[in-house]
Amino acid sequence: MTIPVLQGSSKEAELVTGLLKFHSTLSQAVMMWRNNTGAIDIAGSDADVSMFDSIAKELKYTAKCVKSECATVSWLPDYSYDYLGVKGTNVSFGAVAKNGYGNACYLLADGMTFCLDINPNNYCVTVDVNGKKKPNRVGRDIFSFTVGYNGQDVTPEELHCSNNPHVLTTHGTCCIAEGKCDASNLDPTQKGGAAPTSYVLLTKKLPPIYNGK
After folding, report:
1. Which of 62, 116, 176, 213 has its CA at a distance of 20 to 30 angstroms from the CA of residue 105?
2. 209 within domain boundaries
3. CA-wise closest residue to 125 among 200, 33, 205, 55
C-alpha cells in the first residue's frame, strides 16, 4: 500500500471510530437522563433548548450556541455539504455549520460538534465527528440521529424526509418517518434514499462517495 492509501485508511478509521463513540455516548446519556428524571417524553417545543442540556452535559460539552448565536461562533464552519456533495447554502437545519444549524449547537471536549432541531416529540441530532475540519459532508463526517422518536432513545438517520429542501441531511438520504431505513442502501436515487448513518453503524466503514452513477 502506498502512503496516500494508508493515510486514507487511517482517516476513515478515525471517522468511523468517532461515529461509533458518539452513538454509544449519546445512547448512554439519554438512558441516564431517563433514569434520573423518570421522564418518558424527551422533547419539547422549538423554544426549549435547555431541556437537552442535561443530556449534553453527559457528552462533556465545552461550548454552546443557541439560534442566531451559532452564525458567529468560531468553532463551526461556514457551511456543511449534503450526501451528494452540494453546499448547504439554503437550509434551515441538518447542517453542523453557521448556515443550517437549527435550534442549537454544542462543541464537545474531544472536538466533535453537533446541532439540534427540536420537535414536539423528539430531537434531531446531527453530529460532525470531525468538528470544524473538512470535509463537513453527510456520510463522511456528518451523520444524523433522532432521539425520542416512537419511544426509541436513539435511532440512526433523520426523522424528516428527503422532500424537504431545507433539511441538509435529508438530501438524497432516507428518513425514519417513512419507515425503516435500509442500512445497505447507499444510492440516493433509490426509493427512500441512502442510509449512511445506519450503514456505518452496521459495517464499521464509511460508504463509498456517491458519484452519480
Report:
1. 176
2. no
3. 55
**How buried is residue 150: exposed, middle or buried, by Cβ count under 10 Å (0-12/13-18/19+)?**
exposed
Greater model confidence, 74 or 175? 74
CA distance 66 to 74: 14
SS3 content of the chain, % helix, strand, coil (to 5): 30, 20, 50
Cα separation, 111 vs 211, whole angstroms: 29
Measure CA 123 to chain center: 11
Secondary structure element (H or E) that encloses residue 196, with its range:
helix 196-203
- Split into its structural domains, the chain has a count of 1
Q: At residue 2, what are phi and psi to the nearest 5 degrees?
A: -80, 165
Q: What does the pLDDT look like over 181-200, one tens digit per residue?
A: 999 999 998 888 999 999 99
DSSP, res 207 = P
Residue range 17-60, pLDDT digits in tens: 999 999 999 999 998 888 887 666 665 555 568 878 888 998 99
Structural domain harbouring 155: 3-203
Residue 130: half-sphere exposure toward Cβ, Cα within 13 Å: 21
Q: Grid coordinates standing for 209?
A: 462517495
- The answer as to whether 101 is a domain residue is yes
Q: Name the maximum alpha-carbon separation found in the chain.
A: 54
